[in-house]
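Students often ask why we bother encoding 3D structure as a string. The short answer is that it lets us treat folding as translation between two languages. Here is a chain of 227 residues written in the first language.
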Amino acid sequence: MRILLIEDNTEEADMIKRGLVEDGHAVDVALNAVEGEELAAAYPYDLIVLDLNLPDRDGVELCREIRDKKNHARILMLTGRDSVKDRVRGLDAGADDYLVKPFDFAELSARVRALARREITRGSPLLKYGDIAVNISTREVRRGNRPIKLTNTEYRLLTYLMQNQHAVVTRRMIEDHVWDMMLDSNSNIIEVHILHLREKLDDTSEDSIITTVRSVGYRLKSNEDSS
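And here it is in the second language, the structure alphabet:
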């Protein structure tokens, strides 16, 4: 997933970002509400991790404004406020989940996975396409009985293709959902990762499972490609 983390504490933001990147996500960080609102409007994030105690605006107010702009990214609130009233206020503003500080990162990681399952797989941790299976809870990837070891970026790229397995995904779509803001859009990094993913996934006796649609983008091989 591509995640926006809105957290004003730089040490805490660095810790959370490192953990989420190790979990395989692309993460952008905003240190205040103004920057967070701008980024949320500029990029199609899958998840926003939002601290409520921001220096320039109440996080609940920011959550409400994000929802008012028809932004459907899942929102996970982080806060030191642990009363039932505060939790209800945050959820009523449009949050999908609520985590009270201090927390163990393992719990944050589990909640992020649960939110991903809720939206993408409707409760199942498995993404499937043909004989390829991805378990988003364990990040295990298999083709048939063969385990496949992927880098974090290759994993994000494969899951994005599988989530959109009946559609062509453009280079811009991949940039927006698989990489963070540090991507140089003029580089060939996407093509390089597609090549590496093909090398790891493909059965050498068959055509590539990832098809290039010239001048458009990529899609997973369909039945019509075999006919």
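Translate back mentally: The domain at 2-121 is CATH 3.40.50.2300 (Rossmann fold). Keep this in mind for the problem set.
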